[in-house]
Amino acid sequence: MKAMKALLASLLLATLAAVALPATIFAQGDEYPSEPLKIIVPFSAGGGTDVLARKFAQVLQKHYPAPIAIDNVPGGGSAVGLTKLYNSKPNGYAVGVAGTHLLTACLQGFAQFPWDSLTHVAILNTEPYVIAVRGDSRWKTIQDLIEDIKAHPRTITMGNAGAGALTDIVAQAINKKLSVEFVVVPFDGGANERAALLGGHVDAGIFSGSEVAPHAGPEGEVRVLAAVGEDRCPLFPDAPSLGELGYHGIPAGSVRGLAFPPKTPKEIVTAFEGLVIQAVDDIEWKNYMRDNGYVNTFYVCKEMMDYYNKLYENLKEIMQEMGLVKQ
Q1: Element holding 41 (H helix, E strand)
Q2: Which candidate, 74, 82, 115, 81, places its Cα nearest to that of 311?
Q3: Going from the N-terminus, what domains does the chain have, and what CATH number goes with each?
Q4: Which helix or strand (DSSP H or E) is residue 125 part of?
Q5: pLDDT tens digits for 180-195?
Q6: Which of the pair, 220 or 1, is modelled with greater confidence?
Q7: Considering the entire predicted model, what is its pTM?
């Protein structure tokens, strides 16, 4: 925590000057920022990525001098929205939510451009995935669910947030690593997946922790059985992780960040980065991250790209083993 505070402080001091520089540093003397900002979310409204983006926009609005709007562009495991971002003008007024979904879309060939061709600005957070069922389900523990699907292959459905999305890859990885056969059912975003679970249209699902937290609890509509990766989810400390049960090599959760279109001028990136740092250092954002069980993973510049490069190679290895990487 002290290291994170020191990092934010140093970054804030380094970038505030850039934000305050006169307008003459920008192309044709235009001041940046001075126009409305559009945040492209490559998923439907109501899912984990959308909810996070809307909260960040609300906090960023305190520091951004013009209106900020969310543009939901779902489809293709995030590829449709990411392609819209890729084709947007590099003028600093269209930014997208990128992260693990970008890496997986590129690895599968759904996004027809290299992941690092976008102009990445920052990584905002990471969030663990969980396996959840309805509160009235016959499965009380993750062991109950695993034993049932082993005994009755292809009789239990496992939802995810979209074909090609990371939760889809997680569901397929669970089948492979646990030697089971869930029927994997993709939905158009986490909100629709959650509605399907609550409505009894799917038996279980892979979710971001924050997507099901409002519905969970001793008498809740949702029961969280396990966290997907090596560690438990902070929101559900009583639910074991698959790692501690001996199931390894499954992507643990989502990483979310911000990116501009390719070839966005460095001066614009630096100015916007300064605004992002102010938002991340805002007490409202810090409290939101804490209260919703997010891991406050914040990186910019070299640390950000090092993180992405390592994550890309890890995902590539897992997805190659599953035959999901487009050659």
Answers
A1: strand 37-41
A2: 115
A3: 2-127+253-321 (3.40.190.150), 128-227 (3.40.190.10)
A4: strand 119-134
A5: 999 999 998 889 999 9
A6: 220
A7: 0.82
